[in-house]
Design brief:
Elements lengths: L3 E4 L4 H4 L27 H13 L8 H17 L2 E11 L2 E12 L6 E7 L22 H20 L5 E7 L13 H8 L8 E6 L8 E3 L1 H6 L1 H13 L5 E5 L1 E3 L3 H6 L4 E5 L18 H17 L2
Parallel strand pairs: 4-5, 4-6, 6-10, 7-8
Antiparallel strand pairs: 1-9, 2-3, 3-5
Bound molecules: zinc ion.
Zinc ion binds next to loops.
Length: 310
């Protein structure tokens, strides 16, 4: 994720009209099943997926850790999905050509409605927001900025294997989100995917970015709200109904992120992101700043949307 375009400060009643809940107060919106573990998001497993990615080291395109992580993510998704595919593309910079790959996985292919779940799996090659100038050319570990969204989606993938979804789910892990110094050379994987969706075209989607912060706060991302107000409000309303308190029913930042190329291509997208993270694009973006509980909150919401719809 990159630039903050603006902060919109308006009273929440000007911004959102909170409709009364259409769900009876005692209706359970969390996902449960007869078997205790079936359909249930395991926060410890999700956190293990986060730390595992970080153990490879900084995962920027062109690095060995990037290659190793790609193989790992592919192998993990192959355990759970009906179909997994690499979507390769090249990025040319000067006389250099960098190979990148989006990683695509499909679940519940027999169903008609298709939901896209996305996160970026690459990490930033330089800690340009680090307080110490000496660190600013070092690559970041990206525990939150990158690994957290992927961790939630790997755990969601594991759950989908244990309990078939009533709609088709496509997980896309984007490469090259955080590659460039400026927005011109960022969101590379999502731009490529948006122009080459083919048979992976979804009806709508949810992007997860920086969802692992120990102090999780998820106000409504403005570009999502501006582009797809009804969908965005439905997502936050569900979180409210489920009592997931990190989701805050108030306007947040407008973020440039992987959802924008998809919105431009006509796919309604919602970005779930906590941009109030002091370690953003620094060497301090490490697993100790993240928590299993935060991953769980986001995972529970995603599973509720998958199994119960919006
Ligand atoms: Zn970033």
């Amino acid at each position: 994720m990159w630039l903050v375009l603006c902060v919109i400060i308006v009273g929440s009643d000007q911004f959102l009209v909170c409709k009364p809940s259409e769900v009876a107060p005692d209706e359970d919106l969390s996902v449960s099943a007869e078997d205790e573990s079936e359909g249930v998001f395991d926060p410890d497993q999700a956190f293990a997926y986060l730390t595992k990615q970080c153990e490879f080291g900084p995962r920027f395109p062109g690095s060995m850790a990037h290659k190793e992580t790609q193989a790992y993510l592919l192998a993990e998704l192959q355990k759970f999905a009906q179909e997994v595919e690499l979507q390769p593309f090249e990025f040319r910079q000067g006389n250099q050509t960098i190979q990148m790959n989006n990683i695509l996985a499909r679940f519940g292919a027999e169903n008609s409605e298709t939901i896209l779940l996305a996160a970026h799996w690459d990490t930033r090659p330089f800690a340009d927001q680090d307080t110490k100038p000496a660190n600013r050319n070092q690559p970041i570990l990206g525990a939150n900025d990158g690994a957290s969204g992927v961790a939630v989606l790997l755990e969601v993938a594991r759950v989908l294997k244990s309990k078939s979804p009533p709609r088709q789910v496509i997980i896309v892990l984007f490469d090259g989100e955080d590659y460039g110094r400026t927005a011109t050379n960022m969101f590379l994987g999502s731009r490529h995917f948006a122009q080459n969706m083919g048979r992976w075209q979804p009806d709508f989607g949810i992007l997860l970015d920086m969802v692992g912060d120990r102090n999780l706060g998820l106000p409504i991302e403005q570009n999502s709200w501006n582009a797809n107000r009804e969908l965005t409000e439905s997502v936050w309303r569900r979180a409210q109904e489920m009592g997931l308190s990190p989701f805050q029913h108030r306007p947040g930042y407008a973020i440039m992120d992987d959802h924008l190329p998809l919105i431009d291509a006509g796919v309604p997208m919602v970005d779930i992101i906590d941009f109030d993270y002091p370690y953003w694009h620094t060497l301090e973006d490490t697993p100790d700043k993240c928590s299993a509980k935060s991953l769980e909150v986001v995972g529970q919401l995603v599973l509720s949307i998958i199994y119960l719809g919006l």
